[in-house]
Amino acid sequence: MRKILVLALLLAVALVPASWAMEQGASMFALEIGQGQGDQANPDLGDGYLGLNGDNSTHNSGQIQLGAEYWYMFSSDYALTVSGGIGMYRETEQPAGAGEDLKYTTSSYRVRLGGDRVGQIGDRFSWFMGPGLEYWSGKSKYEVGTDSEETPQVTRYALNGRFGGVMKLGDQIGIVGRIGHSFGIASAEKDGAKTSWWASGFEAMWGLAFSFGGK
Q1: Is 77 helix (H, G, I), strand (E, B) or coil?
Q2: In CATH, what number is assigned to the domain containing residue 34?
Q3: How many folded domains does the chain comprise?
């Protein structure tokens, strides 16, 4: 994924012309970093359930996110947007005494398709706001010494709304920032046991944006 993001950055720089243009027919590409919330199922608690309230309940956890997003201006103030990214989290617990460390990690990926209303405030700032459909998938892993256990894969289908803006730094580059909220249904399955729940969470991302194309 790191190599893909580097190649995408180089491609964006190569495509940028000598002026910033968010007008009909223009495009914008951004590389972003931030935080989001992941949904994780429990490991098997030994009672046939994937349960919500066991000792290892981790249904909602924070994650660091790396992502990329593309906007296409199909009119002077509306854009089609496509985005994707990966999420990760790592925690190490050290017990009192001589016990083994417990390592807990999560990983995920997400894709989103949506539309934004886009506007301009002065010559150096653009804002955007809009809804989208999101697919998210992730899992977690517990490790103690040489023993490890993975939880079932969780899938989440959600409606996502967000708003943000782009601050122009020069003719070729800007800083993009946004916050959003997702609401939907998450589910997981393992060995015939199933669990599903209403899932919701906030995210915040910021990064570098490049504009190119247009009339």
Answers
A1: coil
A2: 2.40.160.20
A3: 1
